[in-house]
Structures are given as structure tokens and as C-alpha cells.
Amino acid sequence: MKKLLLSVFLLAGLVFITTPDARAQLGVQGGLNIANFNDTDDSFDSRSGIMAGLTYDLGIPMSPITIQPGVFYAQKGAKYSGGDVETTAKLDYLEIPVVAKFAFILDNPMLTPHVYFGPYLGLNMNAEQEGTPDFEDEVKGTDFGVVVGAGADITKFNVGVRYSAGLTNAFEEGDGKNGVFSVVAGINF
Fold it and tell me: Which Pfam families match (predicted)?
């Protein structure tokens, strides 16, 4: 997995270095996460959290496509209630997505709608659950998945929605993949 991520970053860097007129843009994004666990027999309720981080758009010359690596702090997890038990699994990740972003060119230069998709790697930074002292040992250290999203750049600001779907179980034993719907906003420099 590390080799795949390194390859993607090297490829993005190679595209940026070998194209002298490449567009590059740093951005800051933040927003609200609504997280849950998918592909499990247990019934969970969503957990709200935050996400915040940096993106870097690497433009491909004469193309509406950019490669956008990023790094985010993302709160995930879910609430469980069954019988007399009510608890919340709080999972915090350092999430590294690398997405291909396609911009729809309009006559209005101030508004540029876009869609994007690509893989992400999540590194677990913290795992807590009330009443489970060794909960960190039950959560895998990495999460791998895909992210899809849509939004718009409005001059130097951006807004959008995205969904990240975990492809691997979040836990060492048992089922449950991260699924997170996010509403994001940011600014590009």
C-alpha cells in the first residue's frame, strides 16, 4: 500500500516537474463529517465530526483535469445502541487522498464546477470507545478506500460534498468499514 501511494505521489510530481506551464495551487479545506460503519450486521447510528486539511492542485496543461493530493485530519466512527448498551466509537485519522479532479469550463470565469475521485489512505491516530480500555488494539492502524465528490470553485473559494468509502475493515476482528459523507468549504491560494 505504501508503494502504491508513493508511486502516485511520484507520478504527480513528475507531471508537475516536466510540464513548465503546469498550474499549481495550494488550498485549505474544512468541513463536517457524518460517519458510520458499512458492511456490518450490527446497527449503528452516524457520528458527526470534523475534517480539516490541505490540498495541492497540480494542473495538467491544456486539460480540465488536475491531480489533487491532500492531507486531512478526519473524525470517523459511529454510535451503537443495543439493549442497555449505548456507546460511541471515535476514530481519528490522518487521511491522505490523491484524486483526479475534472473541471467543467463555463462562460463565467468566476464559477467552475468540478467532480473528483480517487483513492485514500487513512492512518489511525486515535481510537476511543467508552467502557473499552483496549479499544485502540481492536482498530486497524490503516484504512484504505475511495473518495468521490463534487463541488464548485467560486473565484478563490470552494464548496462541495464528498463521500469516502472504506474498502477494508476498520477493525482487527469483526466487520465494519468506514463510510463518511462530508460537506466541505475552503480557500485556494
Answer: OMP_b-brl_2
